Amino acid sequence: MTLADTMGMFITTWGCHWNVEGRDFYELHKMFGDIYNELFEAIDEIAEHIRALDEYSPGSYKRFQELQTLQEDTKIPTASGMVERLMEINDQVIVSLQKAMEQAKIANDGGVENFIGGRLEAHTKHGWFLRATSKKNRE
Known about the structure:
about 75% helix
């Protein structure tokens, strides 16, 4: 689920990067690029952790869709809508990571716990950037 949700956020963020427009284009385009690049690296690391547990990582869009908890977007939102949607998705990925952390604790696997802790830290930072971007300027 964590891998599939991360892949879903990656694809959505990538689409936002491609399609954002408006007066904040440059800043959002760059921020979305930074986030999707970080997620791209994470996807490989998550899949490798799954393999290290002697399980198979999903390898098709269909399987990712079956496993993810995120709702697929079919329309291109406005720039502010993209930020709002990515905040929602990021929060969902955090929930997925928290569930994975519970499983790692049950399995008493400190290495996986540390890895998931790092992922939670990354998503906390993504959430901070997205929330800060969504706020109106103070006068």
